Automatic annotation (TrEMBL):
Listed name of the protein: Zinc transport system ATP-binding protein
Keywords of this entry: ATP-binding, Nucleotide-binding, Transport
SMART domains, alphabetized: AAA
Boundaries of every ABC transporter domain copy: 6-242
UniProt cross-references to InterPro entries, sorted A to Z: AAA+_ATPase (IPR003593), ABC_transporter-like_ATP-bd (IPR003439), ABC_transporter-like_CS (IPR017871), Metal_Ion_Import_ABC (IPR050153), P-loop_NTPase (IPR027417)
GO MF terms held by the record: ATP binding; ATP hydrolysis activity
Sequence similarity: Belongs to the ABC transporter superfamily.
Xref: SUPFAM superfamilies: P-loop containing nucleoside triphosphate hydrolases
Leader sequence segment: none
Annotated Pfam families: ABC_tran (PF00005)
Domain of life assignment: Bacteria
Amino acid sequence: MGSPLINLHNISYQYEQTKALIDINLTIAEGDFLAIIGPNGSGKSTLLKIILGLLKPTSGEVLLFGKPVNQFKEKERIGYVSQKSNSFNTGFPATVTEVVRSGLVKKTGLFHRYPANVNKQVRQALKSVGMDEYSMKNIGDLSGGQQQRVFIARALISNPNVLILDEPTVGVDSKNVKSFYNMLSHLNREHNITIVLVTHDVDAVSKSISHVACLNQRIHFHGFKNEMDQMSDEQLEAWYGHAVRKVDHQSEVKS
Ligand SMILES: Nc1ncnc2c1ncn2[C@@H]1O[C@H](COP(=O)(O)OP(=O)(O)OP(=O)(O)O)[C@@H](O)[C@H]1O
């Protein structure tokens, strides 16, 4: 196991009326590709916001690279692509290059100059998501999946160690979901980027991930993805809140 990059200790979170998270303990290590899965309203987005320091837990502690989240200053080490990235105003006349370059703003500040090698950095980021041929296109002229790749390139331009994605395949048509997850797998394996994502595509994502966390207010399972198959029906029911039936897609295809 790689060194721990994100540690959550006894995290709980309460919105005014709703208990969203209860006593979450989770360690994400260098090199992990973790999918957080769970039914609607199970606290997935809340958990990501707590990791990113956008919400302060009601109780518990978050450590990023060994430091408490409020003392962690190297924000560029964690890239984030929110669920709403591709609801960006696509009528806005920005090229793919401009969108990716804007990922450096948090590093340079609004009124600072971009570094001299910015064009090379943009090219590398676009290449790593398979979009280098689209650099001069208008972002509004791309498909949902292509736009999402550009937003990932924007997150990658500051060379993060960790990439956090909230439902990145919303807006990606089903035939492109597989190649989208292959691209994330490539970033994880070849560029050594630790990936944490929230998704509902349990089946499509399962070929790419190393770990899975099943969340429904509490963590009902966290471990290697092949161990998830050993969850008992009782554990599955407790997780989902109602009876669930396991479907083996492999045997469905064979029979
Ligand atoms: N800003 C908020 N104010 C009050 N309650 C909220 C707020 N955001 C989320 N909640 C509630 O907290 C719970 C967890 O919500 P969260 O968005 O984290 O779930 P989720 O698993 O990401 O859901 P989905 O899969 O539907 O996106 C839900 O019951 C939700 O209604």
